[in-house]
Design brief:
This protein is an alpha+beta fold. It has a single domain (about 1-255), classed as 4-Layer Sandwich (Deoxyribonuclease I, Chain A). It has eight helices and 14 strands. The strands form three sheets. Strands 3-4-2-1-14-13 form a six-stranded mixed beta sheet. It has a six-stranded mixed beta sheet with strand order 5-6-7-8-12-9. Strand 1, helix 1 and strand 2 (about 30-35) form a beta-alpha-beta unit. The longest helix is centred in the middle third of the chain and has 22 residues, at about 115-135.
Protein backbone atom coordinates (compact mmCIF):
# COMPACT_ATOMS: atom_id res chain seq x y z
CA UNK A 1 0.00 0.00 0.00
CA UNK A 2 1.49 3.31 -1.14
CA UNK A 3 0.62 6.37 0.95
CA UNK A 4 1.69 9.76 -0.40
CA UNK A 5 2.07 13.24 1.05
CA UNK A 6 1.84 15.90 -1.66
CA UNK A 7 1.79 19.66 -1.17
CA UNK A 8 0.24 20.70 -4.48
CA UNK A 9 0.63 24.47 -3.98
CA UNK A 10 -2.84 25.24 -5.36
CA UNK A 11 -5.01 22.34 -6.47
CA UNK A 12 -6.71 24.24 -9.29
CA UNK A 13 -3.40 25.38 -10.79
CA UNK A 14 -1.81 21.93 -10.36
CA UNK A 15 -4.82 19.74 -11.16
CA UNK A 16 -3.32 18.44 -14.44
CA UNK A 17 -0.14 17.43 -12.59
CA UNK A 18 -2.12 15.78 -9.78
CA UNK A 19 -4.31 13.78 -12.17
CA UNK A 20 -1.19 12.81 -14.10
CA UNK A 21 0.41 11.59 -10.90
CA UNK A 22 -2.63 9.54 -9.91
CA UNK A 23 -2.78 7.92 -13.34
CA UNK A 24 0.93 7.13 -13.55
CA UNK A 25 1.72 6.09 -9.98
CA UNK A 26 -1.69 4.78 -8.83
CA UNK A 27 -1.07 5.43 -5.12
CA UNK A 28 -3.56 3.98 -2.66
CA UNK A 29 -3.85 7.08 -0.44
CA UNK A 30 -2.78 10.67 -1.15
CA UNK A 31 -2.67 13.36 1.52
CA UNK A 32 -2.76 16.80 -0.11
CA UNK A 33 -1.72 20.12 1.40
CA UNK A 34 -1.97 23.78 0.42
CA UNK A 35 -5.11 23.35 -1.67
CA UNK A 36 -5.75 27.11 -1.75
CA UNK A 37 -9.36 26.23 -2.55
CA UNK A 38 -12.65 26.66 -0.70
CA UNK A 39 -14.70 23.58 0.13
CA UNK A 40 -17.13 24.54 -2.64
CA UNK A 41 -14.47 24.80 -5.37
CA UNK A 42 -12.58 21.60 -4.54
CA UNK A 43 -12.49 19.57 -7.81
CA UNK A 44 -14.29 16.54 -6.43
CA UNK A 45 -15.69 15.42 -9.79
CA UNK A 46 -12.24 15.33 -11.40
CA UNK A 47 -10.82 13.40 -8.46
CA UNK A 48 -13.68 10.92 -8.55
CA UNK A 49 -13.32 10.48 -12.31
CA UNK A 50 -9.70 9.54 -11.63
CA UNK A 51 -10.93 6.72 -9.39
CA UNK A 52 -10.49 8.32 -5.97
CA UNK A 53 -12.83 9.21 -3.14
CA UNK A 54 -11.94 12.25 -1.07
CA UNK A 55 -12.50 14.24 2.09
CA UNK A 56 -11.21 17.81 2.31
CA UNK A 57 -10.97 20.85 4.54
CA UNK A 58 -10.64 23.88 2.29
CA UNK A 59 -9.96 27.57 2.67
CA UNK A 60 -10.20 30.14 -0.09
CA UNK A 61 -6.78 31.22 -1.31
CA UNK A 62 -4.79 29.71 1.57
CA UNK A 63 -3.94 26.46 3.34
CA UNK A 64 -6.36 23.56 2.83
CA UNK A 65 -5.84 19.80 3.22
CA UNK A 66 -7.41 16.68 1.73
CA UNK A 67 -7.20 12.89 1.79
CA UNK A 68 -7.78 10.85 -1.38
CA UNK A 69 -8.27 7.08 -1.43
CA UNK A 70 -8.26 4.82 -4.47
CA UNK A 71 -11.59 3.13 -5.07
CA UNK A 72 -13.15 4.04 -1.73
CA UNK A 73 -14.44 7.05 0.18
CA UNK A 74 -12.31 7.97 3.20
CA UNK A 75 -14.35 8.23 6.41
CA UNK A 76 -13.65 11.58 8.06
CA UNK A 77 -12.75 11.42 11.75
CA UNK A 78 -11.35 14.85 12.67
CA UNK A 79 -11.35 18.27 11.01
CA UNK A 80 -9.02 20.82 12.58
CA UNK A 81 -7.18 20.58 15.89
CA UNK A 82 -8.57 21.42 19.31
CA UNK A 83 -6.94 23.90 21.65
CA UNK A 84 -7.32 27.25 19.89
CA UNK A 85 -10.98 27.87 18.98
CA UNK A 86 -10.25 31.16 17.22
CA UNK A 87 -7.89 29.44 14.75
CA UNK A 88 -9.68 29.37 11.39
CA UNK A 89 -6.80 27.98 9.31
CA UNK A 90 -7.59 24.73 7.44
CA UNK A 91 -4.49 22.72 8.27
CA UNK A 92 -5.56 19.28 9.56
CA UNK A 93 -7.90 16.52 8.43
CA UNK A 94 -8.00 12.90 9.56
CA UNK A 95 -9.82 9.92 8.12
CA UNK A 96 -10.11 6.16 8.19
CA UNK A 97 -9.25 4.22 5.06
CA UNK A 98 -9.76 0.54 5.71
CA UNK A 99 -7.81 -0.38 8.84
CA UNK A 100 -5.65 2.74 8.64
CA UNK A 101 -6.03 6.12 10.29
CA UNK A 102 -4.45 8.77 8.07
CA UNK A 103 -3.99 12.49 8.67
CA UNK A 104 -3.05 15.23 6.20
CA UNK A 105 -1.12 18.02 7.91
CA UNK A 106 -0.07 21.48 6.77
CA UNK A 107 1.92 22.96 9.62
CA UNK A 108 2.40 26.74 9.73
CA UNK A 109 5.51 28.11 8.04
CA UNK A 110 6.36 30.49 10.88
CA UNK A 111 8.21 33.18 8.94
CA UNK A 112 9.19 35.83 9.69
CA UNK A 113 10.73 34.84 12.95
CA UNK A 114 10.75 35.91 15.69
CA UNK A 115 7.20 37.19 15.75
CA UNK A 116 3.53 36.20 15.99
CA UNK A 117 3.67 33.82 13.01
CA UNK A 118 6.50 31.88 14.61
CA UNK A 119 4.66 31.81 17.94
CA UNK A 120 1.59 30.45 16.15
CA UNK A 121 3.71 27.74 14.51
CA UNK A 122 4.99 26.54 17.89
CA UNK A 123 1.52 26.60 19.46
CA UNK A 124 0.13 24.64 16.52
CA UNK A 125 2.92 22.09 16.90
CA UNK A 126 1.99 21.55 20.53
CA UNK A 127 -1.67 21.11 19.62
CA UNK A 128 -0.65 18.52 17.04
CA UNK A 129 1.48 16.70 19.62
CA UNK A 130 -1.42 16.59 22.08
CA UNK A 131 -3.69 15.02 19.47
CA UNK A 132 -0.96 12.69 18.21
CA UNK A 133 -0.58 11.22 21.67
CA UNK A 134 -4.26 10.29 21.76
CA UNK A 135 -3.78 8.51 18.42
CA UNK A 136 -0.86 6.53 19.82
CA UNK A 137 -2.90 5.64 22.88
CA UNK A 138 -5.57 4.18 20.58
CA UNK A 139 -3.01 1.61 19.34
CA UNK A 140 -4.36 2.01 15.80
CA UNK A 141 -2.25 1.85 12.64
CA UNK A 142 -1.72 5.58 11.98
CA UNK A 143 0.14 7.63 9.37
CA UNK A 144 0.63 11.36 9.98
CA UNK A 145 1.51 12.69 6.52
CA UNK A 146 2.16 16.24 5.52
CA UNK A 147 4.19 19.37 5.05
CA UNK A 148 5.54 19.95 8.54
CA UNK A 149 7.56 23.03 7.54
CA UNK A 150 10.46 21.72 9.60
CA UNK A 151 13.92 20.75 8.40
CA UNK A 152 14.74 18.25 11.16
CA UNK A 153 18.51 17.84 10.68
CA UNK A 154 21.45 19.63 9.10
CA UNK A 155 21.74 16.88 6.48
CA UNK A 156 18.14 17.52 5.43
CA UNK A 157 19.07 20.79 3.69
CA UNK A 158 21.33 21.78 0.79
CA UNK A 159 22.95 24.57 2.83
CA UNK A 160 22.72 25.08 6.57
CA UNK A 161 24.06 28.59 6.19
CA UNK A 162 21.44 29.57 3.60
CA UNK A 163 18.55 28.49 5.84
CA UNK A 164 20.00 29.35 9.24
CA UNK A 165 17.63 32.25 9.96
CA UNK A 166 14.53 30.57 8.52
CA UNK A 167 11.69 29.45 10.80
CA UNK A 168 11.94 25.96 9.28
CA UNK A 169 15.33 25.39 10.90
CA UNK A 170 15.11 27.18 14.24
CA UNK A 171 16.03 25.19 17.36
CA UNK A 172 12.47 25.58 18.67
CA UNK A 173 11.01 24.11 15.48
CA UNK A 174 13.39 21.19 15.52
CA UNK A 175 12.80 20.56 19.22
CA UNK A 176 9.03 20.44 18.66
CA UNK A 177 9.52 17.88 15.90
CA UNK A 178 11.83 15.78 18.11
CA UNK A 179 9.30 15.85 20.94
CA UNK A 180 6.65 14.56 18.55
CA UNK A 181 8.91 11.71 17.39
CA UNK A 182 9.79 10.90 21.00
CA UNK A 183 6.17 9.94 21.65
CA UNK A 184 6.86 6.84 19.58
CA UNK A 185 6.46 7.90 15.95
CA UNK A 186 8.80 6.67 13.19
CA UNK A 187 9.99 9.12 10.51
CA UNK A 188 9.62 6.84 7.48
CA UNK A 189 11.90 8.72 5.09
CA UNK A 190 14.64 9.13 7.71
CA UNK A 191 14.44 5.42 8.47
CA UNK A 192 14.90 4.61 4.78
CA UNK A 193 17.66 7.20 4.26
CA UNK A 194 19.44 7.57 7.63
CA UNK A 195 22.26 9.57 6.06
CA UNK A 196 19.96 12.36 4.87
CA UNK A 197 20.55 14.19 1.60
CA UNK A 198 17.01 13.55 0.36
CA UNK A 199 14.96 16.62 -0.57
CA UNK A 200 11.18 17.02 -0.91
CA UNK A 201 11.03 20.76 -1.72
CA UNK A 202 12.83 23.04 -4.19
CA UNK A 203 11.98 26.74 -4.26
CA UNK A 204 10.89 28.38 -7.51
CA UNK A 205 13.48 31.12 -6.98
CA UNK A 206 17.20 31.32 -7.80
CA UNK A 207 17.28 28.17 -9.91
CA UNK A 208 16.86 25.96 -6.85
CA UNK A 209 15.53 23.01 -8.84
CA UNK A 210 18.27 23.22 -11.45
CA UNK A 211 20.93 23.44 -8.73
CA UNK A 212 19.25 20.70 -6.62
CA UNK A 213 19.19 23.23 -3.78
CA UNK A 214 16.38 21.62 -1.81
CA UNK A 215 15.46 20.43 1.62
CA UNK A 216 13.24 17.93 3.41
CA UNK A 217 10.08 19.28 5.03
CA UNK A 218 7.47 16.72 3.93
CA UNK A 219 7.32 13.85 6.42
CA UNK A 220 5.33 10.67 6.99
CA UNK A 221 5.27 9.63 10.64
CA UNK A 222 4.22 6.08 11.49
CA UNK A 223 2.68 4.71 14.67
CA UNK A 224 4.36 1.54 16.02
CA UNK A 225 1.93 -0.81 14.25
CA UNK A 226 2.40 1.13 10.99
CA UNK A 227 6.19 1.08 11.42
CA UNK A 228 6.04 -2.71 11.76
CA UNK A 229 4.57 -2.78 8.24
CA UNK A 230 7.12 -0.38 6.70
CA UNK A 231 8.37 -1.74 3.38
CA UNK A 232 9.91 1.32 1.71
CA UNK A 233 9.82 5.12 1.54
CA UNK A 234 10.96 7.67 -1.00
CA UNK A 235 10.34 10.78 -3.07
CA UNK A 236 8.88 10.83 -6.59
CA UNK A 237 11.36 13.55 -7.48
CA UNK A 238 10.82 13.52 -11.25
CA UNK A 239 7.33 14.99 -10.84
CA UNK A 240 8.87 18.20 -9.44
CA UNK A 241 10.63 18.77 -12.77
CA UNK A 242 7.50 18.80 -14.93
CA UNK A 243 5.93 21.88 -16.47
CA UNK A 244 3.98 24.02 -13.98
CA UNK A 245 4.70 21.55 -11.19
CA UNK A 246 4.36 22.19 -7.48
CA UNK A 247 7.51 23.23 -5.64
CA UNK A 248 7.13 20.03 -3.58
CA UNK A 249 7.62 16.48 -4.85
CA UNK A 250 5.25 13.67 -3.82
CA UNK A 251 6.77 11.92 -0.80
CA UNK A 252 5.66 8.40 0.05
CA UNK A 253 5.76 5.31 2.20
CA UNK A 254 4.73 1.77 1.33
CA UNK A 255 3.28 -0.49 3.99
CA UNK A 256 2.96 -4.25 3.79
Amino acid sequence: MKIVSYNVNGIKARLPRLLEYLAEESPDIVCLQELKSSDETFPEADIRDAGYGAVWHGQKGFNGVAILAKGVDPVERVRGLAGEPEDEHSRYIEAEVGDLVVASIYLPNGNPQPGPKFDYKLRWFERLATHARTLLDSERTVVLAGDYNVIPNDDDVFSVRAMASDALMQPESRAAYRRLLAQGWTDALRTRFPGGGVWTFWDYQAGAWQRDAGFRIDHLLLSPTAADRLADAGVDKAHRGREKASDHAPTWVTLR
